């Protein structure tokens, strides 16, 4: 879930860069390349979000005096961008900002894509309606038999109830195909 938090953190960073220029500085450090920095900050678990105020003395040879009370709490991890931004703005004493999430619907090309999709769906529907292969009754008979077989074979029961086809046996440490029905699909009782 660290990748999800990193994406949300990137959204917060880009939003705060535009909304509060020069007031909040966000940085990201990775443990593999910055082990010495993590030792100076006293960070023992990841992810870790902590404010470093401008008044805090930071030297090259000394440890930074951060307390655990200043770190973002892990009780609602993984954090959303809104949670991170709210905590950062509250810690910095600034008003809350709205996170601008990129979306296809917010794009200026969204109406064009919608019109193209609706036009192509209409053309496809028209062509399928007038297709000669849909005029044969055997297609509808075969389709109704497939639907009937699927409904009485236990396939729908398995999908609705979420029953597995394979079951792991703890005693023998092997997986067994779970088919108790006689000649039917799946794990129905």
**Biggest β-sheet strands, sense, barrel:** 2 strands, antiparallel
Strand content: under 5%
State the shape: elongated
> Order of strands in the sheet with the most strands?
1-2
- SSE class: mainly alpha
Any idea what the radius of gyration is?
Answer: 29 Å
Proportion in helices: 40-55%
Q: Name the average pLDDT.
A: 77
Number of structural units classed as domains: 2
Distance between the termini: 37 Å
Poorly predicted runs are 182-186
The number of helices is 6
Total beta-strand segments: 2
Output the helix-strand order.
HHHHHHEE
Pfam families: OST3_OST6
Protein name: OST3/OST6 family protein
GO cellular component, one term: oligosaccharyltransferase complex
Membrane topology: Multi-pass membrane protein
Strand and helix map with partners:
Elements: H1 2-19, H2 35-41, H3 81-92, H4 110-129, H5 137-152, H6 155-161, E1 166-169, E2 174-177
Helix pairs in contact: 1-3
Transmembrane segments: 109-126, 138-160
Main location: endoplasmic reticulum
Protein name: OST3/OST6 family protein
Q: How would you characterize this protein structure?
A:
There is one protein chain. By secondary structure, this protein is mainly α. It has 2 domains: 91 residues, no CATH class; 68 residues, no CATH class. It has 6 helices and 2 strands, in the order H-H-H-H-H-H-E-E. A hairpin with a 4-residue loop joins strand 1 and strand 2. The longest helix has 20 residues. The two termini are 37 Å apart. About 3% of the residues have low confidence. It comes from Auxenochlorella protothecoides (Green microalga). InterPro entries: OligosaccharylTrfase_OST3/OST6 (IPR021149).
């Amino acid at each position: 879930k660290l990748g999800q938090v990193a994406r949300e953190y990137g959204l917060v960073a880009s939003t705060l860069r535009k909304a509060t220029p020069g007031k909040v500085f966000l940085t990201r450090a990775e443990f593999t390349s910055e082990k010495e920095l993590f030792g100076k900050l006293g960070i023992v678990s990841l992810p870790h979000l902590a404010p470093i105020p401008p008044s805090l003395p930071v030297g090259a040879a000394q440890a930074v005096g951060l307390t655990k009370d200043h770190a973002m709490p892990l009780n609602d991890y993984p954090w959303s961008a809104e949670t991170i931004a709210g905590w950062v703005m509250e810690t910095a004493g600034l008003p809350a900002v709205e996170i601008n999430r990129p979306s296809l619907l917010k794009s200026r090309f969204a109406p064009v894509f919608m019109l193209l999709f609706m036009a192509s769906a209409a053309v496809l529907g028209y062509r399928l309606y007038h297709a000669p292969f849909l005029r044969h009754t055997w297609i509808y008979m075969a389709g109704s038999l497939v639907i009937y077989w699927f409904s009485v074979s236990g396939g729908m029961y398995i999908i609705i109830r979420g029953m597995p086809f394979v079951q792991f046996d703890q005693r023998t440490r092997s997986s067994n195909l779970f088919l108790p029905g006689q000649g039917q699909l799946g794990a129905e009782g």
